[in-house]
Amino acid sequence: MPVEARGKSIGALIHRREIDPESNFSFGEGGAGTWSDGKLTTRIGRNSGPVRFVLETLVKYGAPEKILVEGSPHLGTDNLVRLLRNMRADLRSMGGEIHFGARADKFIIKDGTIEGVGAACTPVRERARANDSEELGDPTPGLEPTKVFRGDAVVLATGHSARDVYYELHNLGVKLEAKGFAVGFRVEHPQPLINEIQYGKDWGGRVITGRLSTDSANAEHFAKDAKHYVSHEGTLPVASYRLATNEAFDGISNRGAYSFCQCPGGQIVPSSTEDGELCINGMSFSKRDSMWANSALVVTVSPNDAILEPWSAHGCLAGMEFQRDMERKAFMLEGGDMSAPVQRLTDFVDRKLSQCVPSSSYRLGVKSAECHDIYPEPLYNALRNAIVTHFDKQMPGFLCDEALLHGVETRTSSPVRVLRDSTTLQAIGVDNLFPSGEGAGFAGGIVSAAVDGLLVADAIKAKFFAHNNETKLFDGNFASVGYEY
Ligand SMILES: Cc1cc2nc3c(=O)[nH]c(=O)nc-3n(C[C@H](O)[C@H](O)[C@H](O)COP(=O)(O)OP(=O)(O)OC[C@H]3O[C@@H](n4cnc5c(N)ncnc54)[C@H](O)[C@@H]3O)c2cc1C
């Protein structure tokens, strides 16, 4: 769905708890990164050619130029929506066709070559208000219920939440492999507390966002120690953090545990794509001016992890089914109304239900629950150990009563990889099928997914336009391991 209509679906989710499986925080024009914090950080090489190309392209479509020089650039949802509209208009002006409301559900493969996809189609006009459709210039009036799109190449970039696509590929014999991922919770602190921990009492009061209520809350927080900050001048941006350890002891061995996708001045949002499942994530607007700081706190699960044994009948899709079961558990824990199960961080480490909980940015409501019982014991142990033994030492004060854990954060990256040839980038055994991005297991974040798209475009050019002396734009291996922003 186009971003404008997607905004309405998100409104219906927040206000009426109705989830549209094709238009939500994860799916729709712009993908999962649209209603996000828009962090443009990546670990695949900040100054590598393709990363610079992605940042410059964002600027070309309206992103502020400062993202080219900032150490931790971010855009915010408001900027992303505007950029996408500009990109859409440009694509159309170059003759590109965009078929909104078309969900690929069949892959037409003959003798080891893909020839196209079949898509279930819903005319966009049915879903958007008439005046919106006019504004969008609805490109797909009267789409047939099922339509076949044929082409020389098919790029598969459906993201890590398109679980039906993995099953369809698996049934067709496309080679998939299980890959490592990470699961956990999203923790939220009052932003003034994070400002204090990171900047100290002297400087924390100097954080200014421009939003009256947020700035007053921050000033009030530091007013207790008024003598400190009045002596300083200037302003500071909202404080952020990053925590990590490779020594989160799970009772038998060590796992990796880390904070992820930290959103200063942000809010927690539901990123579920199907009814009956609850998973959450974080987003923010460009000003990062909410009163809260949230971040995923996750622990690693390896592809052949012993905790996946109960799901082993699903083969390479065991990790995905494990994620789904954790999401169903979280959904049912709170009575199935999309409110989030929560627990004070201090109660989580003490394994006890929170008697009352602080306020939260999650707009569908929160309910106190025994979050410590959601995941298998080794994952709980590792996360608890990471919080107590590592994170609270790296950031003294992180483990506190005001910190509220929200369940569950399961989709940090894809638990599956679609195998592809490292030179041609085609799926192993299927000519002309180009798996790309996070869902295919080759990216983990907005920038690396975009870079992988560039590499695939290069590979397609090399295969189909070699006679035009088209040369590759980029050389080198920029594939990411996932969860790296
Ligand atoms: C709330 C949230 C906040 C995030 N914040 C950040 C951040 O700050 N920084 C960052 O780097 N990353 C962030 N991420 C992660 C980032 O969004 C992803 O890593 C990135 O979007 C992956 O890009 P992709 O193109 O591979 O897949 P996606 O963005 O998931 O895109 C997949 C697209 O395929 C479409 N699709 C799915 N199935 C089908 C089908 N069958 N037929 C047709 N189309 C289909 C979907 O509608 C979607 O548009 C965030 C994610 C979420 C959910």
From TrEMBL:
InterPro entries: FAD-binding_protein, FAD-depend_C, FAD/NAD-bd_sf. It comes from the Eukaryota. Residues 229-412 form the FAD-dependent protein C-terminal domain. Signal peptide: none annotated. Pfam families: FAD-depend_C. PANTHER family: FAD/NAD(P)-BINDING OXIDOREDUCTASE, FAD_NAD(P)-BINDING OXIDOREDUCTASE FAMILY PROTEIN. This is FAD-dependent protein C-terminal domain-containing protein. It comes from Stephanodiscus triporus.
